[in-house]
Amino acid sequence: MLALRTTISFCYFCLTAHLLNYSMTNNDHRLIGVFLRKAMQGMIEILTPGDYVRHPEHPNWGLGQVQSVIQERITVNFENKGKQLINGRKISLLLVNINEENLS
Prior knowledge:
Blueprint: H1 2-19, H2 26-46, E1 52-54, E2 64-70, E3 73-78, E4 82-87, E5 94-96
Antiparallel strand pairs: 1-2, 1-5, 2-3, 3-4
């Protein structure tokens, strides 16, 4: 939940800055980096083996099941791509609620 709240806060900040035509300073960019790192770390801590995820940049890989999480290294077995090692610090996998997902 921390990752979700942090991401929402970050998105709200960016949207507000854009709507107000706000010119971001170097300090703002550093704060954004801190928000993103905390969001990524929070997502890594949420994932556990057995969870279902999707890769945000490769939707064609299909649904994936988390096999292991060791620090930032997440091993996921995807329907259409097979077993992949994901760096959780660089890629924030999308957690899927299988009760809402059509698994046909």
